[in-house]
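Could you join me in thinking about how sequence relates to backbone shape in a protein? We need material for that, and I hope you will provide a protein of your own picking. Once you have written the record down, we can walk along the chain together:

…
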Amino acid sequence: MMRPTLDLDQLRALVTVVETGGFTQAGERLGRTQSAISMQIRKLEDSIGRRLLDRSPRGVSVTLAGEQIVGLARRMLQLHDETVDSLTGTITSGAVNLGMPDDYAEMILPPLLARFAADYPLIEINVRCAPTVELIPRLENGELDMALLTRHRGDPIGRLIKQEPLVWVAAPGFRPELMDPIPLALFQESCLFRPLIAAALDKAGRRYRIAFSGSSIAAVLAVVKSGLCLTALARGSVPPGWRFIGEAEGLPPLPMEEIALRMRPSPTQAARLLARYLVTEMAEPAAA
């Protein structure tokens, strides 16, 4: 049996349908008709013998096989585009206004953005930090080109690119979870997960008090580092060496946090390039 050869245009059509949420939107981005995009997807499905998208009157959803191929396709397309740019001498330039909660900027994004800047030195990235509830209107009024957003599991805001478990943590050498009530340091009231954290403690019957509310990750971490409080953070935002606290210490499990990417309509070439890079680099590896 001959191994199929994957067509990059068909892979690009698949990735674009998934990113935009439909064939018509994908056609608008790629400059093709809806029927042409649909035909490319069918040819790709025929070549590998797997259904990649489920089509229904409610819209388009990705199958398990589709999710696996989309992750690999993004990496292939990024490498292809970088190779073409290098061979043709094309250098992408421009400025991108990227919004994100400050804990992403503090812990998760610096090494990724540093690699992107090394690959695309003429693209200027302006990072604006704010809670998700403030980032969405900034996208809508054109202040931002794209934003990484925090959302509850399954929310339709943006495109999911990463999941992070929320975990209880304290600074090394301190045991604030032994206090009654438990002293908490949390983000300001606009934080999406603050009511869920409180609800989890209420359900577990653990008394608590909000000892500190901060508007930045640096402020929350400073208070927790002092040993006065514990907090709940996305696992990727936990400083090295800090102590994880769990059910063995009498604290309830916490929900999953999702990181989604949302873009403004008609993004620039530089913005599309950064978005593709973020999705590729932050995406969880496909399960074997």
Observations:
- The chain has three domains: 8-87, 90-158+259-282, 164-257.
- Residues 140 and 264 are 7 Å apart (CA to CA).
- DSSP finds ten helices and eleven strands in the chain.
- The radius of gyration is 22 Å.
